[in-house]
Amino acid sequence: MISFMQLRTPNTNLAFLSRTSPIPLYRIELSFPQKIFFCQAKYAESEIDGSFNVRVVSPTLVAAEKEEAKAVLTLFLKKQGLSAALAARAINRSESFIDHLVSRLHSVHKSRYLVGRELTTLEIRDALTPYLEALHEEYGSILLDVVESFPNPPVVDKIEETVEKVPLPVTPASPPSAVLESKKLKALARVSDIGPTGKLPPHILYLVELGMDIEKIRVITRRFPAFAYYSLEGKIKPVVEFLLDLGVPRSQIPTILTKRPQLCGISLSENFIPTMAFLEELGIDKEQWAKVIYRFPALPTYSRPKLKATVDFLYEMGLSSENVSKVLTRYPNIISYSVEDKLRPATKYFRSLGVDVGVLLYRSPQTFGLSIEANLKPVTEFFKDKGFSMNEVAIMVSRYGALYTFSLAKFVLKWEFFLTMGYPRSELVKFPQYFGYSLEERIKPRFAIMTDKGVRLLLNQMLSLSHDSFDKVLEKKMQKLLDN
């Protein structure tokens, strides 16, 4: 049974009704199961449970990531209509859910933690926002109660009591809202119903055989009801086989379809293949299509004018044809950034710092998707406050554009430890990548080993070398000291 609260009002935007100011309410239909399963069961593409695993992550890093998760959740709540004050109050009541979000990060990106690399702010946002959107699709207006009461189901009586205080309007329910909800319910029934043969519909069985469980398919259907009506032979199977022919591993197909179910709705011969050919002309490496589609499944669904506008901008910034190809292949998500609202304002800001925009676009295109006020300016001010000149900041950014994707909380902790290491500040200008390494899992342990051996390595050598190379360099340094 699927839990949802169906709200019908003259105003179709009723997100988080129970926490916002009174909104005229016409009708409420509440269907609530005996138990909410998402906090214990594997969810969407994350395939994690509700437990909070910190075995390989230091408490300091966990604390910083919790702040990042709070920021993502706060922004999401505000986008749903909550005021800053209400969002902050909700965050204070949602400690268990924040832990759950951090646990999700550790599971999805555990390979990054094992090599001592921390997630950037952008990576954290990209990992958590789709998950929150999927939860919102499922729980609608009771999502805030679900979040605050995690991992226990919200109290239905409390929700109903809050709703009863909202005055009833004279006008009838909004037809568009009712029609949309009806379409979702019919689509969900279509993917769940057992036929006369005692089996699920053929296209659902096919998806299950690919590795998608029913809950994943329901998540897709809630978000995109048309997915339930795609035929197996006419839509889904041809697209899947086409992706497999491109070299996409079978194990990645469920993730791709979960992220962009619309792929199954576009014609291979009229849209998909011609768009790919167009992108190859613009610079996509045709040998890398499997990786490109996995990184950004939405790419083939963008219009040609949008694709060309982004590529034209890259050329305008001075990138060569080869470098445009590499940017599109390594980070196809840049296509989703608005040229006028994101790329040009970010370009103007970086140029004001003296940064070579072409170099930065090539090395770190994801930086151009960040907010100038929320991400870029605070980091710049941090380094200026620490005594770095604008020229030094520009050099650091050019060498390591991902510098802007980390939170200030991480900068502060790593800066304070850097001051105890005895390195000149110029080492950070030469190697700003220092801020991308885990303080507890990489920086402190490596520094302690180096200090214990009585030798001194450059900051770059100390952190960027593999474990074996690091040990060998230490041995050579120690031997040289003995020889002297």
TrEMBL record:
Pfam families: mTERF (PF02536). The keyword Transit peptide applies. One of its GO terms (biological process) is DNA-templated transcription termination. Transmembrane segments: none annotated. Keywords: Transcription, Transcription regulation, Transcription termination, Transit peptide. Coiled coil: none annotated. GO terms for molecular function: nucleic acid binding. SMART domains: Mterf (SM00733). The keyword Hydrolase does not apply. It comes from Capsicum annuum (Capsicum pepper). This is Transcription termination factor MTERF5, chloroplastic. Belongs to the mTERF family.
